[in-house]
From TrEMBL:
It comes from the Eukaryota. GO terms for cellular component: cyclin-dependent protein kinase holoenzyme complex; nucleus. GO terms for biological process: positive regulation of transcription elongation by RNA polymerase II. Residues 1-275 form the Protein kinase domain. Belongs to the protein kinase superfamily. CMGC Ser/Thr protein kinase family. CDC2/CDKX subfamily. GO terms for molecular function: ATP binding; RNA polymerase II CTD heptapeptide repeat kinase activity. This is Protein kinase domain-containing protein. ATP binds at residue 24.
């Protein structure tokens, strides 16, 4: 039914309980040592997280025949990317609010436990038949400590949802990267399509600056970023114009989540206080 960062996902039935489950299969004979490390970290994180808006690891199973390990999860019928892309049905404001609240609640739980997801996008937000949303695929997730920041790779997050500081090469970052992705999804739910579908990192940055404006000179100094990708001419912020048809409360939250400076994106808990 899908593929994750380093695995395939299958729909299966538990013979004992007759319950339909999702099995995430990781093969060890072909696995790079790196992917085994990622998988071990994913299992540890999922055991640490316990929240209605985060997928629950129901169990582990092994197959000696195939040198495989299976992670067992609840089966979810669809995901947010599929729901957004339905051509005949645009999401209503109450629906967007319902999904956004669940996404931010799940992120709040992760961030309060020192975990960054690092790949928030529609296909990683699973949704059941009752509209319950669960954050899935922690294959790229990592721990962070705001008091003792350590360098982390910036080669994370699917391009269209990647924050400007990651694109510009920062290795010291925090929850702001997940909040940027959440902001992209908020706009996408109203638009019915991805708002910044760049094909390369340079094009992605260009789209961000066209929408959010060119960063000030302080921005480059503060984040200690390379000015290699500094745009040749400056853009004024265009969020208000681009999203003028969006409901006012949504626009207010978008302005926060899509702030160029991660310090101004607030936190998942402050976003939850928003209208």
């Amino acid at each position: 039914i899908g593929s994750g960062t380093y695995s395939n996902v299958y729909k299966a039935r538990d013979r004992k309980t007759k319950k339909i489950v999702a099995l995430k299969k990781v093969r060890f004979d072909t696995s790079e040592p790196e992917s085994v490390k990622f998988m071990a970290r994913e299992i540890m994180m999922l055991r640490k997280l316990d929240h209605p808006n985060i997928v629950k690891l129901e169990g582990l199973a092994t197959s000696r025949m195939q040198y495989s390990l299976y992670l067992v999860f609840d089966y979810m019928q669809t995901d947010l990317a599929r729901i957004i892309s339905r051509p005949d049905e645009r999401l209503t404001e109450p629906q967007v609010k319902f999904y956004m609240k669940q996404l931010l609640s799940g992120l709040q739980h992760c961030h309060e436990r020192g975990i960054l997801h690092r790949d928030i996008k529609g296909s990683n937000l699973l949704i059941d038949k009752d509209g319950n949303l669960k954050i899935a695929d922690f294959g790229l997730a990592n721990y962070y400590n705001p008091k003792k920041p350590v360098p982390l790779t910036n080669r994370v997050v699917t391009l269209w949802y990647r924050s400007p500081e990651l694109l510009l090469g920062t290795t010291i970052y925090g929850p702001g990267i997940d909040l940027w992705s959440a902001g992209c999804l908020l706009a996408e739910m109203f638009a019915g399509r991805p708002i910044m579908p760049g094909r390369t990192e340079v094009e992605q940055l260009h789209k961000i600056f066209k929408l959010c404006g060119t960063p000030s000179s302080d921005y480059w100094k503060k984040l200690k970023l390379s000015t290699t990708f500094r745009p040749p001419h400056s853009y004024k912020p265009n969020l208000h114009e681009a999203f003028r048809d969006y409901p006012r409360p949504a626009l207010g939250l978008l302005m926060v989540l899509l702030a160029l400076d991660p310090a101004y994106r607030g936190s998942a808990s402050s976003a939850l206080q928003h209208e």
